[in-house]
């Protein structure tokens, strides 16, 4: 057996027969002839095996079909083997020189194949359509092959390896991003699964606009891969292999031959083409096989498209002899394909019809749907009877054999040499044993036995095979002697007392003399039981009522026994027979099974083997796989009657996995069948159930979806593609399988008039948001769709809805009443409405609202607008700005802040309502930089940013200066002043416009006039704490003043503060200050070098200001003596004296005449009198 790397469409036993008969003929290994230079040799075998040979003219490997016999060395199982050995065998330089001279040549013929040639002018490889015949050497199957062979090529940078893929695997585009796939069912509508070299290129690609994949031209694609694939050749009507490059092929690209044949029309004929009429293949049918013209026969395939008129097979495929188209002389051929069809063929050797399994294609004419047709066509017999014609059954078949006897009472079973001469002959006799020896005629030479009446014993003889008589037995035992006892007498037996030995059986005759032990009890035929023995009426004329087990129909049947020469299949009562033998159990629930030939139950494998009104019941064994009555017709018009039958588990002990159609779920579900008493809603496989019954989920609100004829499944669709046709519309489900064509008017014309339908649940996905058209509002709205039984008013997106129905863009947040009322201001709108200001005149209309518009929340709306608007913030009590998108806002929407405040009556007061006039209008008050008035008693004027917020507020106090500073609320930034009671000054702050208090002044002057702040006793600003408060001091805590500040002691604590200035008081001149306090103080006179009294006025003095003479005398000398020695800034030379704090004594120094400091004495005595008493 020869093995190949692909699967041949021939069964294994056929391969064995073929290649044992036709061996491979190869060039001897020692031959010096190179295989690549040998010519192509197809051979003379019976097959079409795809092989490769090296075409030395074109200098490349090409595909051809080898016959299976008699090849030479130029015969390779794959293109890889051929290329590896032969390409490059010729001289490359010579090839290049010839190639450069060849221009494009498309050849001639009707086949168009995508090829590549080298454009010697552009120096690039380009694609062209090759017509299949002739041409020149500038012809390559792939872009890569062209690029490798041609010099000076401008390479195409787009072809990379798959890891760095820049060339899309799809020739007509794909989804973005690309979707991995495992088959066409995993891709979307109008896409197919492209099987590349790896998972990276196995993606969903867009289908070609050219339509049917089987009619697309061969496209080997682009890339570096070498993938064995199959395509359908529309010219040859065959699936043929090719090498795919891995990228940018088309749909006419199959992984194996079976997939190709299952998808595309394949020529089912074993030889030649089907008969055609005006270019169309002529189909026939099992009911009318004779409709084919002369020279053709009706090939019965698995489907209508393969049931066609094929040419007669006049040449026998295996024996190489002419049959003249006679089906019965042809050998059986299981054919090709994936089907398993129960068929019958005529066995020439056994001269009988036998069953076989047909694969569906390429078989011979010796192929019949059932045994009856086979018998009627092929069975022939020669009359072996001595006189008269034999009795014949249906289709001229015999009624008896060595194992059964269905002959009439007037006929006897003649056992010939072959089945054709084993027939029921007329003239059944009563005294068989008295008939003379009859050698008969013919050349069969069969060993038989006859009873010699003279010697009362059975004698063997040689029978010619035909024209004998009844005294003719197959074995000696068939006419043997009874058992004898020990005394040599015949042993008597009875039904109640069986005294026969193990090799005998008790024959119950008509008399006591014939009730005896006959030979071979239980072994009348080897490995047989009494129930398997044929009917034996016997001889003798006794006319006894007996029962026998009919092994064909598995029933106990009455018969008349003649009393002698019967067998064990002979029972006194029906009960005894049924207790002994396996009676046929009728598996049919609605009556008796159909009886076939020999009154046996008609066995079957499909309904077409049963008579009208019967159906094929498939049981656990062949005996219960019979035709049962009560067949129902099944069609869509009749409501699929089979599918509406209830599930029935049946009766029996079997546990068979079966499938039934559930009318409620419209699904094929599994169940356990017990083997008998079922109904037709019983399928061996789920696929068989789905092909018979509409096994799908009906998502349509009314009726059933449009079904595909080939699959009996709903036609799938997509919105806007018009793939359903007239009178159907596309239901958009939650999963791809529920995008079905439902009966009804098309979506475009009817959806907009239909009401909202949320449908019902049940889909294998959660409900989703969809859009529907609200005709009353003339707009598209969203809703949650449950998945099934909705109507046409159901859109995936708002855009789809708007594209289908006329949409009115309602700018209001509520439904409006048509016709619309336009407006320019709210006064133009009726009560209960307001003027909605949109971005266009069409959206500026009167919109309804309820309640207080000022209490509504801010609503930005929807749309693409960017409009500056104002709304009233009820939480803050102010109008604020926001950006409005253009539609679906609310009434709290104003063109300006003023409009907002007018409409919403802003309350700027911190507590209570503003004072209102008699007409309920807030009273506006006057607020100037000097005074605020105009309010009645108990009210105060809030100084807002405008007249709407400058109103009289309740809760006025007598002294606002004691109130805390309050910045208020709002969006304003107003400069105001408040009185700081702690610091006793008026300070600036920022007021937000509302909710403040009376300690709020428009100017500092107004604040000071009202609150009289502290008079500053310092020259400059006094020191303050970190909290901003004035730092006070006294005579006992002068140390609290920071550096560069000194403690000013005024007439009151309020004027005793830390003032800025140097800390040495003795060097500054006298300053009486201002005011009218008239305080007695002391100061240090630098000229007199002593402390003197003066009158201090109370404020704005300096540091040289002491409460007593003692304080002055203690402070100033000490201060001046501690000064450093300063020579001054002029050029004179005067001797002076100063206190040196380092030597702790008075010393002399040279003074320049000007400048210097107080540590400067004219004499040593003056220095010592002033500084000598210091205790340093």
From TrEMBL:
<feature type="domain" description="BPTI/Kunitz inhibitor">
    <location>
        <begin position="214"/>
        <end position="264"/>
    </location>
</feature>
<feature type="domain" description="BPTI/Kunitz inhibitor">
    <location>
        <begin position="328"/>
        <end position="378"/>
    </location>
</feature>
<feature type="domain" description="BPTI/Kunitz inhibitor">
    <location>
        <begin position="36"/>
        <end position="86"/>
    </location>
</feature>
<dbReference type="InterPro" id="IPR006150">
    <property type="entry name" value="Cys_repeat_1"/>
</dbReference>
<dbReference type="Pfam" id="PF00014">
    <property type="entry name" value="Kunitz_BPTI"/>
</dbReference>
<feature type="domain" description="BPTI/Kunitz inhibitor">
    <location>
        <begin position="854"/>
        <end position="904"/>
    </location>
</feature>
<feature type="domain" description="BPTI/Kunitz inhibitor">
    <location>
        <begin position="1066"/>
        <end position="1116"/>
    </location>
</feature>
<dbReference type="GO" id="GO:0004867">
    <property type="term" value="F:serine-type endopeptidase inhibitor activity"/>
</dbReference>
<dbReference type="InterPro" id="IPR028150">
    <property type="entry name" value="Lustrin_cystein"/>
</dbReference>
<feature type="domain" description="BPTI/Kunitz inhibitor">
    <location>
        <begin position="752"/>
        <end position="805"/>
    </location>
</feature>
<feature type="domain" description="BPTI/Kunitz inhibitor">
    <location>
        <begin position="643"/>
        <end position="693"/>
    </location>
</feature>
<dbReference type="InterPro" id="IPR053014">
    <property type="entry name" value="Cuticle_assoc_divergent"/>
</dbReference>
<dbReference type="Pfam" id="PF14625">
    <property type="entry name" value="Lustrin_cystein"/>
</dbReference>
<dbReference type="InterPro" id="IPR036880">
    <property type="entry name" value="Kunitz_BPTI_sf"/>
</dbReference>
<feature type="domain" description="BPTI/Kunitz inhibitor">
    <location>
        <begin position="1121"/>
        <end position="1171"/>
    </location>
</feature>
<dbReference type="InterPro" id="IPR020901">
    <property type="entry name" value="Prtase_inh_Kunz-CS"/>
</dbReference>
<feature type="domain" description="BPTI/Kunitz inhibitor">
    <location>
        <begin position="100"/>
        <end position="150"/>
    </location>
</feature>
<feature type="domain" description="BPTI/Kunitz inhibitor">
    <location>
        <begin position="433"/>
        <end position="478"/>
    </location>
</feature>
<protein>
    <submittedName>
        <fullName>Bm6546, isoform f</fullName>
    </submittedName>
</protein>
<feature type="domain" description="BPTI/Kunitz inhibitor">
    <location>
        <begin position="961"/>
        <end position="1011"/>
    </location>
</feature>
<dbReference type="InterPro" id="IPR002223">
    <property type="entry name" value="Kunitz_BPTI"/>
</dbReference>
<feature type="domain" description="BPTI/Kunitz inhibitor">
    <location>
        <begin position="531"/>
        <end position="581"/>
    </location>
</feature>
């Amino acid at each position: 057996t020869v093995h190949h790397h692909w699967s041949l469409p021939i069964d294994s036993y056929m391969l064995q027969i073929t290649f044992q008969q036709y061996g491979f003929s190869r060039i001897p290994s020692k031959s010096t002839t190179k295989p690549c230079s040998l010519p192509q040799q197809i051979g003379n075998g019976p097959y079409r095996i795809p092989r490769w040979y090296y075409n030395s003219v074109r200098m490349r490997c090409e595909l051809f079909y080898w016959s299976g016999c008699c090849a030479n060395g130029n015969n390779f199982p794959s293109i890889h083997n051929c290329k590896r050995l032969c390409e490059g065998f010729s001289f490359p330089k010579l090839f290049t020189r010839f190639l450069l001279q060849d221009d494009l040549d498309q050849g001639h013929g009707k086949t168009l194949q995508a090829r590549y040639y080298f454009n010697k002018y552009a120096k690039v490889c380009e694609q062209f359509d090759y017509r299949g015949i002739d041409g020149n050497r500038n012809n390559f199957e792939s872009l890569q092959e062209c690029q490798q062979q041609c010099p000076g090529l401008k390479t195409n940078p787009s072809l990379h390896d798959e890891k760095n893929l820049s060339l899309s695997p799809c020739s007509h585009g794909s989804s973005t991003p690309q979707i991995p796939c495992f088959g066409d069912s995993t891709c979307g509508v109008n896409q197919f699964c492209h099987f590349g070299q790896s998972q990276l290129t196995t993606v969903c690609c867009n289908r070609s606009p050219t339509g049917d994949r089987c009619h697309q031209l061969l496209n080997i694609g682009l890339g570096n891969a070498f993938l064995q694939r199959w395509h359908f050749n529309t010219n040859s009507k065959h699936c043929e292999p090719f090498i795919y490059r891995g990228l940018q092929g088309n749909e006419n690209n199959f992984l194996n031959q079976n997939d190709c044949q299952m998808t595309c029309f394949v020529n089912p004929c074993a030889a030649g083409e089907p008969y055609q009429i005006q270019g169309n293949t002529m189909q026939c049918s099992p009911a009318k096989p004779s409709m084919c013209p002369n020279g053709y026969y009706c090939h019965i395939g698995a489907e209508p498209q393969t049931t066609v008129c094929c040419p007669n097979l006049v040449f026998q495929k295996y024996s190489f002899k002419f049959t003249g188209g006679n089906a019965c002389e042809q050998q059986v051929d299981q054919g090709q394909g994936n089907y398993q069809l129960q068929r019958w063929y005529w066995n020439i050797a056994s001269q009988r019809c036998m069953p076989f399994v047909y694969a569906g294609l390429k078989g011979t004419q010796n192929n019949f749907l059932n045994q009856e047709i086979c018998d009627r066509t092929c069975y022939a017999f020669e009359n072996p009877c001595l006189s008269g014609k034999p009795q014949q059954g249906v289709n001229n078949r015999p009624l008896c054999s060595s194992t059964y006897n269905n002959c009439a009472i007037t006929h006897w079973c003649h056992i010939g040499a072959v089945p054709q001469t084993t027939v029921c002959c007329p003239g059944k006799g009563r005294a068989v044993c008295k008939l003379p020896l009859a050698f008969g005629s013919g050349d069969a030479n069969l060993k038989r036995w006859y009873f010699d009446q003279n010697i009362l014993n059975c004698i063997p003889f040689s029978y010619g095979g035909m024209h004998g008589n009844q005294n003719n037995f197959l074995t000696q035992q068939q006419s043997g002697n009874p058992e004898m006892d020990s005394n040599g007498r015949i042993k008597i037996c009875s039904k109640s007392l069986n005294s026969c030995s193990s090799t005998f059986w008790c024959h119950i005759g008509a008399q006591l003399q014939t009730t005896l032990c006959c030979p071979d009890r239980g072994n009348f035929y080897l490995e047989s039981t009494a129930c398997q023995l044929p009917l034996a009426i016997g001889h003798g004329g006794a006319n006894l009522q007996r029962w026998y087990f009919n092994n064909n129909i598995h029933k106990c049947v009455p018969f008349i026994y003649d009393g002698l020469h019967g067998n064990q299949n002979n029972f006194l009562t029906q009960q005894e027979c049924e207790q002994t033998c396996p009676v046929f159990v009728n598996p049919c629930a609605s009556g008796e099974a159909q009886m076939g030939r020999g009154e046996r139950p008609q066995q079957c494998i499909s309904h077409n083997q049963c008579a009208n009104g019967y159906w094929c019941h498939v049981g656990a064994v062949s005996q219960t796989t019979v035709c049962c009555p009560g067949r129902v017709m099944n069609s869509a018009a009749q409501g699929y009657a089979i599918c509406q039958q209830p599930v029935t588990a049946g009766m029996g002990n079997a546990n068979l996995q079966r499938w039934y159609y559930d009318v409620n779920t419209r699904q094929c579900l599994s169940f356990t069948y017990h083997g008998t008493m079922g109904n037709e809603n019983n399928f061996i496989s789920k696929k068989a159930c789905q092909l018979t019954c509409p096994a799908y989920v009906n998502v349509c609100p009314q009726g059933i979806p449009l079904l595909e004829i080939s699959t009996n499944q709903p036609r799938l669709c997509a919105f806007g593609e018009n793939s359903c046709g007239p009178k159907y519309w596309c239901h958009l489900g939650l999963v791809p399988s529920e995008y079905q064509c439902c009966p009804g008017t098309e979506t475009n014309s009817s959806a907009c008039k239909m009401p909202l339908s949320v449908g019902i649940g049940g889909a294998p996905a959660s409900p989703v948001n969809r859009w529907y058209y609200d005709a009353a509002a003339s707009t598209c709205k969203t809703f949650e769709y449950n998945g099934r039984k909705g109507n046409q008013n159901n859109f995936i997106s708002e855009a789809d809805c708007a594209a289908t129905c006329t949409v009115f863009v309602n700018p209001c947040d509520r439904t409006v009443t048509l016709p619309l009322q336009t407006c320019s201001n709210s006064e133009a709108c009726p009560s209960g409405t307001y003027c909605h200001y949109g971005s266009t005149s069409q959206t500026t209309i009167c919109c309804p609202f309820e309640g207080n518009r000022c209490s509504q929340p801010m609503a930005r709306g929807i749309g693409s607008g960017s409009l500056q608007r104002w709304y009233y913030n009820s939480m803050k009590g102010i109008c604020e700005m926001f950006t409005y998108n253009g539609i679906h806002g609310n009434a709290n929407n104003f063109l300006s802040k003023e409009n907002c405040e007018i409409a919403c009556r802003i309350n700027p007061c911190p507590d209570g309502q503003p004072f209102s006039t008699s007409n309920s209008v807030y009273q506006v008050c006057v607020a100037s930089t000097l005074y605020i008035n105009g309010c009645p008693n108990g009210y105060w004027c809030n100084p807002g940013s405008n007249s709407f917020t400058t109103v009289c507020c309740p809760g006025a106090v007598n002294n606002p200066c004691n109130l805390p500073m309050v910045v208020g609320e709002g969006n304003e930034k107003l400069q105001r002043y408040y009185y700081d009671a702690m610091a006793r000054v008026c300070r600036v702050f920022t007021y937000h416009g509302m909710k403040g208090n009376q300690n709020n002044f428009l100017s500092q002057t107004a604040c000071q006039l009202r609150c009289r702040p502290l008079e500053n006793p310092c020259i400059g600003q006094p020191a303050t704490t970190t909290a901003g408060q004035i730092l006070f001091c006294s005579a006992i805590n002068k140390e609290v003043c920071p550096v560069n500040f000194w403690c000013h002691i005024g007439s009151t604590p309020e004027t005793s503060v830390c003032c800025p200035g140097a800390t040495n008081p003795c060097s500054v001149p006298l300053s009486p200050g201002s005011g009218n306090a008239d305080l007695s103080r002391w100061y240090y006179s630098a000229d007199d070098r002593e402390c003197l009294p003066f009158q201090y006025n109370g404020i704005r003095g300096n540091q040289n200001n002491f409460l007593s003479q003692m304080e002055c005398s203690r402070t100033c000398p000490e201060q001046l003596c501690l000064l450093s020695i300063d020579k001054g800034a002029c050029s004179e030379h005067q001797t002076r004296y100063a206190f040196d704090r380092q030597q702790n004594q008075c010393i002399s120094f040279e003074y320049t005449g000007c400048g210097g400091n107080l540590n400067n004495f004219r004499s040593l005595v003056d220095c010592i009198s002033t500084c000598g008493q210091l205790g340093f």
